[in-house]
């Protein structure tokens, strides 16, 4: 963890270093992924089988390629009632939030009598990647699958690795609750490639979303264009802006809720009170020791954590914009004033009773958010990621007479005579 | 050009071949681009200068790196009045269409007293790539720059190569009309890399859009994630669905309006009338000979053109969906019935008086559209490409008491104790 003071000389350079630090994967991952993707494109099922044997340690032809819908239903029935209630609350709230994202079609006739519009439709099929093994993330299943189903995707495919054949019932239960249509027990770059290109067994999809390790993220990046993807995902981040009226234990817990994800995660506190900064630092150190995830949290906090003292909290806002964090907590009495000064963040948590973790699970907004400063230009996962817009246009003869000559002039100026002729022929009649 | 008949045996295989034919760039382009992008990231201006000298044949330190706003104003003043009028009509109509795309923010309080919302903001800076040299595309300047300005982008940067130093005044005039803020006389993969990473002279941008050759398209693909991009663009395509009541000369002109773009462009006609198919084929052959662009159009039509006879026009719709074309003309008396049966197309042109070229220039919808079957999952360029959404959430103590316990349960099940604690600490008070 580093401590910075915005009022001290050298801050600007130190903050630049923090902003520009790369915490993402290397060239060797890209090369590995290229080999895997090419093999799956060329050899289909055989390549998927071989990579699964190698990386996940089981033979698909023995363990089975698919997990049946009936297995998902069984997993849901067997769920602890409290957990089932929590998942159902999450599902309902996530669905309600995402329903409001559904875009409206347009269809208007303008003053020249020209009809113009846009029509939104769901993609035919989407694939959701869900990490497997011991770390089970039913919340990821909900956050990826529900927007797809709200969009109207008819074929929703889930892929999830089952290392050594081990299936996670929580993930299956969440798939059942979210309405997933097909589940394949495959993972890694090979699963992303199978979804993108299709194989003998697996029909291709149009969009692939969902979190994964560096290989999965790189596979999505390489296959972008063959399929649509949600985003290039990197390590998780939280920025907390907090004054001294917060309980330092709460703030410390919030910082650790990102640090425990991965050694490459990043947690940053901005505060205007040096004593509060000290108290949070002490609370973080104490709380880490109590966590089952302490090894990961310690590595993350030591390597990437930061506490930054600012002269006043509004002074934090332009610095927050430089970081463009995935998650931003504004833990102050009047968060609205600060929120108005921030331009770049994936998701913002307003006030002292809105810990980021409540948004990770049940509040409703999506927890799939831009990382690595990408909130400058990209947005969290939404219904729009599973839809596409077709624009349309209808002119009658009178409309073409009005605007066609301008098209002829511009086509001529661009040296495209067939463009000009296709309009001019119709003007002549 | 190939002729297919949907009623004949072997059609399915032949159509599959047509759908799956790759017309895009090769691995050697990817390798070239990787070298250029890495050099620009590491050496900045010096690399841009060297590649410009090599590929564009002029020395930026002599010809100048920038084109001043005053030069754009001069170009606009010097424009032929008819052309200026055409550009202004285009600008106004494009702006009017894109204004309607501006997304609404949301901010609601639900039944549990939990505040949920989403806020849209423009990116800070966007870069528009405009091809240069003899082929000048002022329409591309408008189609890329206007959505950015409608979105509210404050710094809009245009890059355009000036081979051998030659500047195209039409492009500058369009930049002035569209409100471009900075113009740099650079192109190729090096220009895209300079926009993405920034150099000593050029500040980085957040989003890069605009058409270009295979190297430009590949540079955008490789830099996706460092910046936002509009899409991976491939060769242009048109599909025309037409009955025998059309003038074959009009249909032929429409097919050629795509064929003249590039030897890799593709033009496909679906019709239910063999005689009309023959007439269009003959008209295409005759019209090609009259075009200044005949060499390109001939190559495209011979290599990639197709005329497909279907038993009736509704039978064309599922085939159109397989192709998911960039442009689709429905040249029939009642286009609505066919439009309702098509799911995948970038932009649709309804009726006999709506040639695609009128949409390329002046109608209003964007002409930057998904190619290479990507209309299955992606959309034409829009205001949304220059904006991003920040979700937000605000709970009070009562709200957290309602939904917090479910978050604690799910965090526990996912093995993330710091997530659980950040909520549980606040529930205890």
From TrEMBL, chains A, B:
Cofactor names: Zn(2+)
Residues noted as binding substrate in the record, renumbered to the chain: 236, 258, 261, 327, 360, 414, 419
Single Gene Ontology MF annotation: zinc ion binding
PROSITE patterns: HTH_MU (PS51702)
Residue span(s) of domain HTH Mu-type: 401-429
EC number: 1.1.1.23
Active site: 326-327
Any one GO biological process: L-histidine biosynthetic process
Domain of life of the source: Bacteria
Nucleotide-binding is among the record's keywords: no
Record-linked InterPro entries: Ald_DH/histidinol_DH (IPR016161), Histidinol_DH_monofunct (IPR022695), Hstdl_DH (IPR012131), Mu-type_HTH (IPR003314)
Substrates-to-products reaction catalysed: L-histidinol + 2 NAD(+) + H2O = L-histidine + 2 NADH + 3 H(+)
Gene3D superfamilies: 1.20.5.1300, Nitrogenase molybdenum iron protein domain
Residues annotated as binding Zn(2+): 258, 261, 360, 419
One cellular component term from this protein's GO annotations in UniProt: cytosol
Pathway assigned in UniProt: Amino-acid biosynthesis; L-histidine biosynthesis; L-histidine from 5-phospho-alpha-D-ribose 1-diphosphate: step 9/9
Free-text remark on how the cofactor is bound: Binds 1 zinc ion per subunit.
Signal sequence segment: none
Keyword set, alphabetical order: Amino-acid biosynthesis, Histidine biosynthesis, Metal-binding, NAD, Oxidoreductase, Zinc
Binding-site residues, NAD(+): 129, 190, 213
HAMAP family given in the database record: HisD
Family membership noted in the UniProt record: Belongs to the histidinol dehydrogenase family.
Function: Catalyzes the sequential NAD-dependent oxidations of L-histidinol to L-histidinaldehyde and then to L-histidine.
Protein name from the UniProt record: Histidinol dehydrogenase
Species of origin: Stakelama sediminis
């Amino acid at each position: 963890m580093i401590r910075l003071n915005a009022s001290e000389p050298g801050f600007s350079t130190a903050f630049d270093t923090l902003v520009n630090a790369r915490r993402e994967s290397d060239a060797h991952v890209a090369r590995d992924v290229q080999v895997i993707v090419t093999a799956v494109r060329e050899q289909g099922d055989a390549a998927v089988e071989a990579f699964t044997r190698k990386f996940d340690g089981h033979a698909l032809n023995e363990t089975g390629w698919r997990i049946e819908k009936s297995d998902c239903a069984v997993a849901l029935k067997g769920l602890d009632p409290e957990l089932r209630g929590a998942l159902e609350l999450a599902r309902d709230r996530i669905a309600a939030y995402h329903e409001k994202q559904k875009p409206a079609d347009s269809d208007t006739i303008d003053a020249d009598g020209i009809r113009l519009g846009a029509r939104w439709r769901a993609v035919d099929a989407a694939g959701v990647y869900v990490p497997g093994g011991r770390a089970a993330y039913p919340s990821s299943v909900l956050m990826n699958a529900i927007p797809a189903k709200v969009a109207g995707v008819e074929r929703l495919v889930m892929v999830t690795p089952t290392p050594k054949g081990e299936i996670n019932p929580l993930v299956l239960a969440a798939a059942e609750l979210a309405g997933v249509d097909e589940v394949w027990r495959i993972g890694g770059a090979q699963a992303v490639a199978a979804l993108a290109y299709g194989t003998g067994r697996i029909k291709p999809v149009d969009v692939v979303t969902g979190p994964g390790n560096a290989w999965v993220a790189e596979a999505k990046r390489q296959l972008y264009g063959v399929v649509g993807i949600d985003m290039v995902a990197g390590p998780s981040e939280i920025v907390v802006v907090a004054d001294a009226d917060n309980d330092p234990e709460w703030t410390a817990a919030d910082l650790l809720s990102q640090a425990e994800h991965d050694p490459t995660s990043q947690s940053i506190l901005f505060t205007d009170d040096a004593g509060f900064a000290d108290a949070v630092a002490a609370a973080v150190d104490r709380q880490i020791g109590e966590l089952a995830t302490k090894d990961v949290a310690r590595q993350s906090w030591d390597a990437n954590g930061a506490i930054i003292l600012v002269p006043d909290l509004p002074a934090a806002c332009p610095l927050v914009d430089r970081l463009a964090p995935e998650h931003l907590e504004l833990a102050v009495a009047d968060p609205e004033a600060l929120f108005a000064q921030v331009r770049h963040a994936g998701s913002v948590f307003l006030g002292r009773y809105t810990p980021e973790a409540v948004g990770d699970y049940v509040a409703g907004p999506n927890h799939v958010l831009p990382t690595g400063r990408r909130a400058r230009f990209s947005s969290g996962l939404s219904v729009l990621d599973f839809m596409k817009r077709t624009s349309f246009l209808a002119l009658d003869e009178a409309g073409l007479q009005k605007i066609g000559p301008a098209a002829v002039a511009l086509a001529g100026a661009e040296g495209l005579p067939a463009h000009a002729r296709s309009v001019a022929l119709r003007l002549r009649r």
